[in-house]
Amino acid sequence: MIDYRNLRIAVLGGGNVGANVVDLLARHREELEARVGAGLEVVGVAVRDTGATRSPEIPAALLTTDAESLVTGADIVVELIGGLEPARSLILAALRAGADVITANKALLATHGEELFEAAAQVGAQLHYEAAVAAAIPIIRPLRESLAGDRVRRILGIVNGSTNFILDKMDQEGWSTEEAMRVARELGYLEADPTLDVEGYDAAQKAAILASLAFHTRVPVEAVHREGITGITGADVAAAKAAGYVVKLLAIAERVEGEDGAEGLVARVHPALVPREHPLAAVHGGNNAVFVEAEFAGPLMFYGAGAGGVQTASAVLGDIVSAARRHLAGGPGVAESTSGGMPILPLDDVATRYQIVLEVADMPGVLSQVAGLIAEHGVSIEQALQSTARGEAADPTATLVVVTHRAREAALAATVAALNGSPAVRRVASVIRVEGL
Amino acid sequence: MIDYRNLRIAVLGGGNVGANVVDLLARHREELEARVGAGLEVVGVAVRDTGATRSPEIPAALLTTDAESLVTGADIVVELIGGLEPARSLILAALRAGADVITANKALLATHGEELFEAAAQVGAQLHYEAAVAAAIPIIRPLRESLAGDRVRRILGIVNGSTNFILDKMDQEGWSTEEAMRVARELGYLEADPTLDVEGYDAAQKAAILASLAFHTRVPVEAVHREGITGITGADVAAAKAAGYVVKLLAIAERVEGEDGAEGLVARVHPALVPREHPLAAVHGGNNAVFVEAEFAGPLMFYGAGAGGVQTASAVLGDIVSAARRHLAGGPGVAESTSGGMPILPLDDVATRYQIVLEVADMPGVLSQVAGLIAEHGVSIEQALQSTARGEAADPTATLVVVTHRAREAALAATVAALNGSPAVRRVASVIRVEGL
Question: CB distance B294–A314 less than 8 Å?
Answer without folding.
Answer: yes
